[in-house]
């Protein structure tokens, strides 16, 4: 049996030296060391040996197993290292090659405008509020001093869903909801950006869906001068410190008195040109002092509280700030247009 073990050891080691394939080495491991391998078959005959011979043969068998296992592991490691070296040589990376450009997205221009305006008013103590786009007739009209059959309703060109439900025509309902929430008991400042809907023919300056940002400030002793100062700060922040504003009388059912605000033309600086149609001024937004009836319907005592409100079209602000001539450019998702306004 001793001679058989030595023969197995010699035969296995010779084969291991000659093999250059890891798969074949695994087959050799099974052939000699597996459950049905040569070494196992020899060891099954140890039961026929005497008590004195068994330890001797057992020790020899262990040495044969260890020698074959060590030779196999060393040869497999050597072949794996050679394969890795070959792969590295074949797959060399030229680190001097230029990288592939990565297209980086950015916020939509209208989103950037909204965020810029929000940051300005948050810094002035305003909170940002949102409300439903499908609104009730009460919040969209009646709570804003626009009762049934009021002629000013015709100005809105409303999308009605039912007699009582509609797509909001402005974000003013959020103001009404906020006043009712506070139940006439506390002053507040808020702005409400969002989408609004009106039945209109789409062209370069009109859209059936657009965005508004409206603001409301209610407190004791709020004056028109507070509104003017707020709007002046807004204009200078959005369009430059050299821009001037003017307020003109106007009419809105929910404010009294009402005004429209113009900013000085950035092209001619008030001298008059084709951009401002020779006036030197460009209309930008509307506002005014909150109508006492609106305050009263929301639970505020108009003898104690007063307030101002203003509203602007987000697209109009963006068009004036960046010189965009067609409102439809904001919604066609033309990458050539949008990427002009990506900020690094």
UniProtKB/TrEMBL annotation:
Where the record annotates domain Aminoacyl-transfer RNA synthetases class-II family profile, the positions are 106-340
| Chief location bin | cytoplasm
Kindly indicate whether the keyword Aminoacyl-tRNA synthetase belongs to this entry.
yes
Q: What does the record list as GO biological process? A: phenylalanyl-tRNA aminoacylation
HAMAP family on file = Phe_tRNA_synth_alpha1
Q: What reaction does this enzyme carry out catalytically?
A: tRNA(Phe) + L-phenylalanine + ATP = L-phenylalanyl-tRNA(Phe) + AMP + diphosphate + H(+)
The UniProt subunit note reads as follows: Tetramer of two alpha and two beta subunits.
Query: GO CC: one term?
Result: cytoplasm
| Entry's cofactor comment | Binds 2 magnesium ions per tetramer.
Alphabetic keyword roster: Aminoacyl-tRNA synthetase, ATP-binding, Cytoplasm, Ligase, Magnesium, Metal-binding, Nucleotide-binding, Protein biosynthesis
Q: Which family does it belong to?
A: Belongs to the class-II aminoacyl-tRNA synthetase family. Phe-tRNA synthetase alpha subunit type 1 subfamily.
The entry marks the following residues as binding Mg(2+), namely: 256
Ranges in coiled-coil conformation: none
Q: Which InterPro entries match?
A: aa-tRNA-synth_II, aa-tRNA-synth_II/BPL/LPL, Phe-tRNA-synth_IIc_asu, Phe-tRNA_ligase_II_N, Phe_tRNA_ligase_alpha1_bac, Phenylalanyl-tRNA_Synthase, tRNA-bd_arm
- Species in which this protein is naturally found: Oceanobacillus bengalensis
Essential cofactor(s): Mg(2+)
Q: Which domain of life is it from?
A: Bacteria
Q: What is this protein called?
A: Phenylalanine--tRNA ligase alpha subunit
List localization entries: Cytoplasm
Task: Identify the EC number(s).
Answer: 6.1.1.20
């Amino acid at each position: 049996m001793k001679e058989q073990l030595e023969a197995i050891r010699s035969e296995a080691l010779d084969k291991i030296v000659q093999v250059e394939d890891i798969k074949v080495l695994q087959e050799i491991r099974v052939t000699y060391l597996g459950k049905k391998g040569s070494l196992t078959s020899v060891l099954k005959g140890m039961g026929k040996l005497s008590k004195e011979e068994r330890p001797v043969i057992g020790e020899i068998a262990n040495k044969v197993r260890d020698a074959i296992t060590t030779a196999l592991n060393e040869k497999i490691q050597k072949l794996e290292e050679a394969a890795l070296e070959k792969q590295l040589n074949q797959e060399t990376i030229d680190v001097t090659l230029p990288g592939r450009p990565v297209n980086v997205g950015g916020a939509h221009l209208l989103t950037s405008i909204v965020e810029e305006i929000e940051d300005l008013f948050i810094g002035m103590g305003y909170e940002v509020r949102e409300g439903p786009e499908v609104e009730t007739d009460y919040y969209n009209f009646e709570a804003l001093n626009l009762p049934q059959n009021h002629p000013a309703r015709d100005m809105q060109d409303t999308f009605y869903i039912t007699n009582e439900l509609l797509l909001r025509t402005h974000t003013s309902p959020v103001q009404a909801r906020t006043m009712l929430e506070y139940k006439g008991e506390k002053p507040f400042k808020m702005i409400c950006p969002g989408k609004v809907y009106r039945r209109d023919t789409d062209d370069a300056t009109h859209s059936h869906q657009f965005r508004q940002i409206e603001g409301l400030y209610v407190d004791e002793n709020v004056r028109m001068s507070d509104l003017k100062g707020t709007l002046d700060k807004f204009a200078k922040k959005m369009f430059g410190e050299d821009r001037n504003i003017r307020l003109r009388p106007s009419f809105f059912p929910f404010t009294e008195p009402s005004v429209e605000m113009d900013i000085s033309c950035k092209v001619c600086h008030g001298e008059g040109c084709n951009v401002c149609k020779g006036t030197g001024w460009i209309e930008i937004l509307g506002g005014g002092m909150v109508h006492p009836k609106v305050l009263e319907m929301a639970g505020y005592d108009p003898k104690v509280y007063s307030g101002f409100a203003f509203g602007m079209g987000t697209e109009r602000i963006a068009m004036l700030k960046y010189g965009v001539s067609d409102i439809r450019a904001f919604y066609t998702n033309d990458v050539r247009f949008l990427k002009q306004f990506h900020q690094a």
